[in-house]
Amino acid sequence: MSLAVERVTPQPVPPHAQQHMVRMRDGVLLATDVYGARPDPAPTVLVRLPYDKNSRYVFFEKTAQRFTERGYVMVVQDVRGKFRSQGRTLGWTGEVDDGYDTLEWVTHQPWSNGIVGMFGDSYYGFTQWSAVSSQHPALRAIVPRVTCTDNGPGVAGYDPGSGRQPLWLEGADYQAHVWVDNDNYEYEADLTTRPLIAAYEQAFAAIGKRSQGFDLIVGGIPLPPYNGPHPYDARPVPVLHCVGWFDNLGIAHMRDYTELARRPGWAALQYLIADTTDHENYFLENAPVSPDTDHLADEAALDAMLDAYTRPALDFFDVFLKGTARPESLPSVRWKLGHVGWRTSTAWPPPEAASIDLHLGEPEAATGPVPGGRLTARPAREAGSVEWRYDPDDLVPSATANTFMVLHDHPDERPTADRDDVLVFTGPVCDTPLDLAGPVDAVLHVGSTAPTFDVFVRLLDLAPDGTARLIVRGCVQADAAGEVEIALGHTGYRVRPGHRLTLMVTSSDFPNHLPNSGSHEDPWLTTAPRASLQTLRTGPSHPSRLRLTVLPGSGTGGDGP
Questions:
Q1: pTM for the full model?
Q2: Which listed site, 35, 80, 431, 442, has its alpha carbon 20 to 30 Å from 184?
Q3: How is 230-258 classified by DSSP, letter by letter?
């Protein structure tokens, strides 16, 4: 059967934008829209993205209006090789030089006063870090949203800084749809195909072209993303990090923030806004999304979302581009406590927050159903263990097929937690609020009958009605028995009275991650992946535990009944 493929081409340039073809140093022309050009020179906010500068998906026709009304010129550009821009289509390459050359072009325009900031999400957060690497003197401030510095060509991981991880199939799939040529391609690859690579070979045959970025991932060939200094080592500029607690790149983004906050040249220039949002800007308070709160489909919902989306950046740029406000007007950290609301702090985690460990106990009950084993503040006195299976013919389902918009459906994960190939450990009912405010990590002692194995961890909020929904998640890949530390990310989240924490441990997460081959065979190429048994150990010599960061006055969520 042939695969149905829909080609997505550029949308029209809006009448109030002026499109220019801007020449790069190698002669390639990049399509660039200018909004709000005026006789009197003004600061410019630059956005460089690969998703069609004129598409509703990136909503810059409306976003630009908010910036120009505030007195900024907004410039939005299709990056090299995408939509109306010329050049080779390979993401995460060439953005340092193209960023510098675009900044140079901006500063020579009659509407520019020579001061530029940058703004945007995800890949157009990465293009900001690339411009920082270029060290162009006109770049005075950036607002990277739901992004990170360490993705690059040939990399497929939502947390590339945490060491070895299962391959993020969702990220490879993105490359196969977005980074083929100038256009995007919509199709549904059959991910149950064996070998799995054949599903994408079918797609590339139907398109008539390949994705070089996808091929680099499959070949395990990472390329350096910067042909200049790593942004950490470049000239510091003020940064407003806009993080989503439910963003699938949140772990990596918070690593950027915490690393730069430790560096003397950068520390005083770091600002953080952390909201209860996912990668596509859906809010916890609206989850699961209804038709009238779905900004990707409803215009009124989009307008409401854009107010929250742009306001922090506008206030930030008023300080560092216009100079009409003082830095003291900006909180160093503004963060939302899920189910409660906004708070401010002098640092992150808040100085008053403390780390606590909840130990995994009664492992023999952990194969479910919920509540399974126990999360307890008291370490186990005796050794214990439990086995769980990895079955490539019965993979554990991901929370959602699209983690970029996990809050759109915010699904109940109780059916998954009740599977007998999943381990669950649950704390007691909270009688007072448990406020999480900082990093969450799982430290587990695990082994396997396979030469390589994956461990996926999700921390869930188990409600009084029995539903269980995601708070944070993480994963690791290992090839030997021992202790593994799994970063689950940072969060601001209230576990409300009557609710419980549940820790879920699995060996697959499909279709978000490439299933393990269970052997040394390439998982892309295997036609017969092997089942395996994993073991988790607890007790004094193998203290498997969940590490939380909590605010004072919080219940532990782990005192045994």
A1: 0.96
A2: 35
A3: -GGGS----EEEEEETT-TTHHHHHHHHH
